[in-house]
Design a protein that fits this description.
With about 70 residues, the chain is mostly helical. The protein has 3 helices and no strands. The termini are far apart. Keywords: Membrane, Signal, Transmembrane, Transmembrane helix.
Amino acid sequence: MLRSAYLIRASLVLALAGGLAACGDDPLEQGLYGGALGMGTAAILDGNLVAGAAVGAGANLLYCQKNPGRC
């Protein structure tokens, strides 16, 4: 039962994250949006908030640098 609740929360987070991914017009906004999304994901999944924010910010910045047409 606990595992299925975790999977449902993780699925919801990923679905919401897909709509917000790669937002931001400049690197500062991209980092802030990615960090906020990473922190929110970590909070929902009971993870480390600082690590979640760092990973989210870095991932969004990297994505936007590799795919500038999608940001």
